[in-house]
Amino acid sequence: MLNFLKQRDVLIPTLLAAGILMITMGSRQTIGLYVGPMNSSTGLGIATISFALAVSQFIWGAIQPIAGAAADKFGPRPVLLTGLGVVVLGTAITPLMQSGLGLTIAIGLITAMGSGTISFSVLIGAASQKLPAESRGTASGIINAGGSFGQFVFAPIVQKLIQWLGWMGAMWSVALITLVSLPMVTKLAPAGRPPAQPGTQGGLGGAVSEAMKNPSYLLLHAGFFTCGFHISFLVAHLPTEVGLCGLSPTVASWSLAMIGAANILGSLYAGACVNKYASKYVLAAMYASRAVMIVLYLLAPKTALTFYIFALGLGFTWLATVPPTAAVIGKIFGVRYLATLFGLTLFSHQVGGFLGAYLGGLVLEASGNYQAMWYADIALALIAALVNLPIKEAPLERELRPAV
Questions:
Q1: To 10 degrees, what angle do helices 35-42 and 215-244 make?
Q2: Does domain 2-402 have CATH number 1.20.1250.20?
Q3: Which residue ranges make up each domain of the chain?
Q4: Does the first or last residue of the chain, that is N or C, have fewer Cβ atoms within 10 Å of its Cβ?
Q5: pTM (whole model) above 0.85
Q6: CA quadruple 6, 9, 12, 16: dihedral positive or negative?
């Protein structure tokens, strides 16, 4: 790590990508704080709002491989700038929507498309193009930590903004804050196409076809699906769970902040582990630990301290799955089309996210609690741990040629 920090040409693109992700993920991962005030203001109902959030999870994932493919072909700059403009627009118009359809369009489609375009796949892909192979694991950990730091910073800020300005004023304020990332985007991604690097026969289409026939790549998708399920469930419904336990919204905001803080350390640790151990074992350990944490949470008394300990424990692996997941893809297929191939795994992640966010709302309205969701979460986490073990991380043997 110390050697990494001394390399200016490696450190600068890494920190720029981390800074952009800090802002975009910070605003996105605190969306659950708006659910209660939004429901009280609009009367739309938790299930309707949950559906909008679920669509958001799905679209955020669906746009990732598309954005990644565009960045791999035309360069990351126009993709990131477009995404930034779209996420600001979607955030700004959300308070104007007073129907379920309008909310789904604003949050579920527009904002999600923007935030997905300026997220992991393009940012990690853009940074990786500038980094030597031995630095990519550490860099992906730092970039990922930026997103977690954003959650840590934004959670208490958004909660205070909601208290001072109402949920509408808070969203408009966040739209303005998002614009701070503009100079970082232009610095990270100068104009021009990505540099030519070795690629597969058939270019981008050949790379995707090759990956989708690879069993290890498909197993990676299966594990990442589960990751999306419980992360999206908690982002959308943890504040409501806190309220059901008779605790104040402050506990919810600080719990989300602690998840982000813990994941800063978890992401850096995961990035370091990628350089020492097989990534599949890192992923299996993370998913298994989540099942253990949820079991302990269900057995514990529902106090503020319980939520804080739960947040710190679960937060350590929260999005720390990103560095080893990206590392596996890079090891097997190389980095030429990393933005696209990692974007496809993020789509699987967000299919799980759609189900986690939406089913959480349905279960709550049907039973008055989230008990069934917690049990499903435990089972899926254990399955995810198991499916990562057969993954083969060795590079594919294939004929290489300059990419077009």
A1: 60
A2: yes
A3: 2-402
A4: C
A5: no
A6: negative
